[in-house]
Amino acid sequence: MIQAKGYAAQDKSSELAPWNFHRREVGPHDIQIAIRYCGVCHSDLHQIRDDWGGATFPMIPGHEIVGIVTNAGTHVKKVQAGQWVAVGNMVDSCRICDNCRQGLEQYCTTHISFTYNSTEQNGLPTYGGYSNIIVVHEDFVFTVSEKLDMSAVAPLLCAGITVYSPLRHWKVGEGHRLAVLGLGGLGHMAVKFGVAFGAEVTVLSTSPAKEADAKALGAHRFLVTRDAEQMKSAAGYFDFILDTVSADHAFDPYLALLRTNGTHIVLGLPSEPATFRLGNIVFGRKSMAGSLIGGIPETQEMLDYCAGHHIVADVELIDMKNIYVAFDRMVKGDVRYRFVIDMATL
Amino acid sequence: MIQAKGYAAQDKSSELAPWNFHRREVGPHDIQIAIRYCGVCHSDLHQIRDDWGGATFPMIPGHEIVGIVTNAGTHVKKVQAGQWVAVGNMVDSCRICDNCRQGLEQYCTTHISFTYNSTEQNGLPTYGGYSNIIVVHEDFVFTVSEKLDMSAVAPLLCAGITVYSPLRHWKVGEGHRLAVLGLGGLGHMAVKFGVAFGAEVTVLSTSPAKEADAKALGAHRFLVTRDAEQMKSAAGYFDFILDTVSADHAFDPYLALLRTNGTHIVLGLPSEPATFRLGNIVFGRKSMAGSLIGGIPETQEMLDYCAGHHIVADVELIDMKNIYVAFDRMVKGDVRYRFVIDMATL
């Protein structure tokens, strides 16, 4: 067993605090990684508080992991010691269901091993990236170009792939009008990718103050959703709305912004059920769709695309001990656009 | 003006009764039709009762119209007197918006002239097919092969195209598992088209008694939705669910039946908003979509397809005076599968 340390929650009402634990020995197909950066995802906070139910403790959150290979199993060919690599939301899956065979491991119908608050295929608990070491099967480890700023790569592993995957699946690009609802960790990556793919990108936000930021990220247009006149004038305008909002919200006002055949793509998981009038999709042959992170081949494709197009997240680097300062600011939306923990400060 | 007669509702609380009115003179591009058959659509009853609001009276319902050309304007080339023709949900549209130019007149963004309870492009009211004569611009008149049973063609103009259009739009066919929710006027046509297009078709129904009927129509499988075991065993099974139910109903149990990338297509307009858990579309990249009737080119395509494949509706022919007997039975679901009025009985 490998001695490791991290920040863990011991139960749903306790705060993250230093905790010593063990990682498994490096097997023939495993890669041992010294974690250098880990992004802070809103779901980290939801899970340590057991907001979605079913949490298991102790829990070490973190699934936007970038680090350096320190050891590799005898059968590992894809990396060598000293190389930068990354790990995202998953560390394994059943590998044999239809979805796994198609590289859609995120929709594995049998058993996904999420990076934390989950179990390995053998049933042992998984622990996330708020830690100094992780051991992962090579098939779930990504290579990262050294051309990129590594701290700014970390958020690509969740916020990045969560927007990249639906944009690719629905073939969003030139000639399309894309609306990005919400300008946070996911939203700011959606603007960058949408612009890179050739779409006309509009940020939809409740706050007029975000217009300058949206434009600085490359957005072509900005729409204040609380302005009834602006909403009315954009009726029937968009081909796609990428909805990154995880808080409960109405859908009818956004469905009205879609043109015929338009698609509203939900990426967040509000706690309340969605409610909308069916006439708002029947008239105009519109769709409301969902999408969850991305598969393993697509995540590597995204990282390679980012290297080729110099795309990374905008981040604020923090020390491990300041995680609750970061959580508080994240909940208020006061971050441009993702906190990343410098794991050297653990 | 042309003297005509029909069955009209004078206001939302009065029953349909004989009414004399006028049709416009036949213009250069108009076709005058002696109506022989008119299908009875559930929306006819909704509209004369003003269930959806905004109704205008007097109202003559009926938008599943088959008849014989008795007169054609000087510029009309597509038909001649004595020929069988049909008219559906629309008698005109703006013709210049993007959707109209693409043959998606049903999604006209300016002004659709529905066949009744609507207005012509010049603002005059439209009156439907529970009448002896109709005058329609040739562009909104369809030709019908004389090979088909004309009374059984009538329901194709609404029930038929409403299911044909989404099956074609989503390219449902060989290799797909299609579920048809509800076995009424729309549902029985969805089974026929789904089977003709090569899909594996399953009828979902609350009533085990409908299994024999479903199989007789060509369905390969039957699932009783009130049977928890059957529902559980079909989890993740279907590529598409065609939802023909116009009553309020839950969606979560059906979303669970979809496989990854599956689509639930809503065709009805329940009065209450749809409510479902977003996790049920995010996990599995599923969609809930809507679809409204079909465009003019696609409706002609459907009628030609039906002629080539000997597909018509299963109908019960009724006399005009028995319309309320038919309405009562329709509301109870006691019809296999569409009432059609023999307009010779007007």
Q: Greatest interface and its residue counts?
A: A-B, 35 and 35 residues
Query: Which residues of chain A sit in consecutive blocks of at least 5 with pLDDT less than 50?
Result: none
The ordered H/E elements of chain A are EEEHEEEHEEEHHEHEHEHEHEEHEHEHE
Number of helices of chain A: 11
Radius of gyration of chain A equals: 20 Å
CATH architecture annotation name of the largest domain in chain A: Alpha-Beta Complex
> Total strand count of chain A, please?
18
Q: Structural class of the helices, strands and pairings of chain A?
A: alpha/beta
CATH top-level class of the largest domain in chain A: Alpha Beta
Percent of residues in helices of chain A: 10-25%
Please give the oligomerization state of what you see: homodimer
CATH topology name of the largest domain in chain A: Quinone Oxidoreductase, Chain A, domain 1
CATH superfamily of the largest domain in chain A: Medium-chain alcohol dehydrogenases, catalytic domain
Mean pLDDT of chain A: 97
Q: Please summarize the sheet with the most strands of chain A.
A: 7 strands, mixed
Note the gap between the termini of chain A: 20 Å
Q: How many domains of chain A?
A: 2
SS strand fraction of chain A: 25-35%
Q: Choose one word for the global shape of chain A.
A: globular
